[in-house]
Amino acid sequence: xxxxxxxxxxxxxxxxxxxxxxxxxxxxxxxxxxxxxxxxxxxxxxxxxxxxxxxxxxxxxxxxxxxxxxxxxxxxxxxxxxxxxxxxxxxxxxxxxxxxxxxxxxxxxxxxxxxxxxxxxxxxxxxxxxxxxxxxxxxxxxxxxxxxxxxxxxxxxxxxxxxxxxxxxxxxxxxxxxxxxxxxxxxxxxxxxxxxxxxxxxxxxxxxxxxxxxxxxxxxxxxxxxxxxxxxxxxxxxxxxxxxxxxxxxxxxxxxxxxxxxxxx
Amino acid sequence: xxxxxxxxxxxxxxxxxxxxxxxxxxxxxxxxxxxxxxxxxxxxxxxxxxxxxxxxxxxxxxxxxxxxxxxxxxxxxxxxxxxxxxxxxxxxxxxxxxxxxxxxxxxxxxxxxxxxxxxxxxxxxxxxxxxxxxxxxxxxxxxxxxxxxxxxxxxxxxxxxxxxxxxxxxxxxxxxxxxxxxxxxxxxxxxxxxxxxxxxxxxxxxxxxxxxxxxxxxxxxxxxxxxxxxxxxxxxxxxxxxxxxxxxxxxxxxxxxxxxxxxxxxxxxxxxxxxxxxxxxxxxxxxxxxxxxxxxxxxxxx
Lengths: 265, 302
Known about the structure:
Structural class of chain B: alpha/beta
Strand content of chain A: under 5%
Oligomer: heterodimer
Shape of chain A: globular
Shape of chain B: elongated
Largest sheet of chain B: 6 strands, mixed
CATH topology of the largest domain in chain B: Rossmann fold
């Protein structure tokens, strides 16, 4: 446990000055900022439509969630999986890492957990900033009715689902980035996978849930469908989430065996 | 068992069908500076990686401080500091941050980083990005990383690679210091014998994965036979006179004849013989074949 902890601290120490780390913070700030700015400059039209408060929140948070679920989230996960491993490939430091008196599982698990943590921070910030900027808009434009509905449950559930449904992609991409030191191979496969995921999720193919890349989009689709009814009543642990978690667990274990067999030439 | 810091017993290692290390039996005594010599591609780096368990050895072939490496991986690695090939350095971190990261991984005090920086003379460059370091500075940082845990055994793979003459001397002195004052055992690989000759107490010569020589540096010296070089005029007639008188000529250039050295008295007699026959001997001296040539001989015959 101690080995896992110090490996995790070291991962943070190594990456704290890299884009990979800052992307987790900048991405939500920029996207939420842009959406809020869009709302602000378009405020008159929006106020004129007299949305009920819940729909207004849905409209507002959906802007970020939609673009995240379909496009940015898969690519962001691919990038995280890549950068956590690339830091060792680029500097040729795998041999140093595995020559430390730490068990190999801790080194591997710390890298994986660190990527999970970065994704979590990113999505947590998305939820928090959506909430905070919504209320900021309310202060700036008192005619809006953001304050008449509490969206926390929707936000937590949606981003929670997005987080869990992306773990399958993460494990898969993590293995690809572990095996290949270059950017193009994992990125290329990830790109094709994401396109496939978007298409299959959109056409509603029966087995789309078996493709890890389609899971974030699928998980959000379910959320939208249910929004007509009681928005607080959608289940978090749906088929997509379970599939994602099963993929994540199996691929995580396979990745560990790859690491133990990995010859450091 | 207790005598050796490193002992390998008939170690074999292959990459697929390619034999890299064959029946290697290293014996590195505790407290020694062991020069691990061989031409490029002889299997030195592979051997060092096996000693670090980066490459998995067959069981019961590699022992570090008497303990089998595969079944004592973590305990063994705690006692080893290593520099393998190019130093493993994160280019986007400063020299100091690289060392602090190592402190985090080893669970030691971060103040150790400053200590190491001054030891290898990088204090002024401590806050410079490591990617901006020169090759020599990177090499020194690599040595600092190897030393930071104060290990009993140091594995240094060509540590003077890329260093200027001053740097080479510094590393050499550092190694001698560590071995004599701090009782460390050092295994240092090189393809340059001249570099090892000054520091090593023991030598192992490897070529094509096989150990060709292992022993103390003095034992290596004994292998080289002394020669007598005679600088003389009229070289052709001089050499035929020597042959006629029963001397064996090993080599002949346009002004020097080389024969095996037997004793000073014999050398004197030979000088008298040449002078009595009207030759002018401008010099006559004993030459010990230097280790560089010996090394080439040993690795060539294999």
